[in-house]
Amino acid sequence: MAHRCLLLWGRGACRPRGLPPPLVPGGRAGPTERLCLQTLYRYATTQAKTSRNSLLTDVIAAYQRFCSRPPKGFEKYFPNGKNGKKASEPKEVMGEKKEPKPAAAPRASGGGVGGGGKRGGKKDDSHWWSRFQKGDVPWDDKEFRMYFLWTALFWGGVMLYFLFRSSGREITWKDFVNNYLSKGVVDRLEVVNKRFVRVTFTPGKTPVDGQYVWFNIGSVDTFERNLETLQQELGIEGENRVPVVYIAESDGSFLLSMLPTALIIAFLLYTIRRGPAGIGRSGRGMGGLFSVGETTAKVLKDEIDVKFKDVAGCEEAKLEIMEFVNFLKNPKQYQDLGAKIPKGAILTGPPGTGKTLLAKATAGEANVPFITVSGSEFLEMFVGVGPARVRDLFALARKNAPCILFIDEIDAVGRKRGRGNFGGQSEQENTLNQLLVEMDGFNTTTNVVILAGTNRPDILDPALLRPGRFDRQIFIGPPDIKGRASIFKVHLRPLKLDSTLEKEKLARKLASLTPGFSGADVANVCNEAALIAARHLSDSINQKHFEQAIERVIGGLEKKTQVLQPEEKKTVAYHEAGHAVAGWYLEHADPLLRPRSCWLVSGARRPAPEGQEVGAESC
Q1: Catalytic annotation, residues
Q2: Taking the domain 481-559, which CATH number applies?
Q3: CA separation for the pair 617, 305 (Å, rounded)
Q4: Per-residue pLDDT reduced to its tens digit, 7-41
Q5: Cα separation, 523 vs 310, whole angstroms
Q6: Which fold has domain 169-252?
Q7: How much is the pLDDT for 613?
Q8: 102 cis-preceded (ω within 30 degrees of 0)
């Protein structure tokens, strides 16, 4: 039965619904199609005598053998299509073994043998649309900018049309009666939105200015009664009466009134998508409502001009931190040997000793981005902001890898847990827990080095200082006399010194006059000397200016207006003379340079001996 139907189909007598029309020999077809149909015709003729299969099975088998695609509507009857295997693939010939081919992915159109899906398929989202759904406005995408420009031009044109279109000329009811209706130049009246009436003139009797005229009405019923009475008084009867037409027009006020509401809804949807209910920014953590969960870290890439040559007074710390620079420059050298670089280091020491400067110089020497953030910036009044900012910070660091992440004043967020919270977990503890998780989650191939600075290492949580997080603790103390001399050399470079001064000798002398000074104090002395020279209208900076700067840093401003009473002067004189006499008779006492007193509290400044930081006992 099936093969008889195929014979009839080949002769053109019948054709199943959904199958293509037959191409019998001699029809309008090319040589390839004609040969294919001839083969199909002979195959159906042969199988019609021997096959006992059902009609549908024989039709599908014959069509699948000679056709590359199934007929429309019959895709589900071709099981091979589920595996993405085309029917037109040649079979094994004479026992040859062929290499298995990977299953081809279904085409987007879904029209192939293995498609089985909807025609046309599902179009993948474009790159900018995916980013926009995640809350990131893709201003850098050319297609998005084009869509945004055309949308802005469209709505701008709509607003300009409603704002600057011709509004006609307003007249009163009396002007309408005397100048237009009584003269017979009115063709019809248009009541627009039941608010005003537009006057349409008879062809050829339009006003000179070309503008239409209109007048306001209070009520439609009152307007109709007044118009009816007026036409009766003017003798306008029958077909000569002025017709009244009611129309509705949009003046743009509805769109303008809806604009604020639409903007508010769009803003709320945008913030919700960036919040915990939505998806965060691409490559970053969740932003939270109003972006309070975003990190406040600053990324410095091209702005870093600090090198190790600009850092002085901490040579041991520079040698220890140089290993991080070598790792960032050549990580393969360590990975080939199986070595794991320390994930981070914590820089400890008194304030002003150069912890932040050393971290910035490390990034500048390695030529990698430098991400800096303060520990106090993680804590806010909202619950959950701290952990969200920590996640966002480390996502930013991974995005900019290789880089250096520097957390200044980490003691603000890394204090020991379990104190002062009455058994509950405070927001600071949640932030610290998230910080511990993020630091321990770093692997050795991330190429992110974490540096932190603090002057209170004793209050830090032990879990923060264990190996695997901050592997090393680098102490940066106040510089010695050689360190201060090298720091003075660095800060004396940009200053315009007197021609009689030599930088080497001046640096050593100033270092001996500033015992216990930190690097920040030395920089302050050099800056104060330049300010004093400018205040005195000097062309260059001499040694006297540096001495005055040291006096100001140590004792503050000189109080020239402070007047002492005679008794007070006598008391201070005895006190300062005692300093001088005692220093003269003591064997190991330093020579007195200048007494300094404030009322009855006095002090004395003495130079530090060369190479000596701790003085011997004087008595």
Answers
A1: 576
A2: 1.10.8.60
A3: 46
A4: 444 544 444 444 445 444 444 555 555 665 566 55
A5: 12
A6: name from scop (3.40.1690)
A7: 46
A8: no
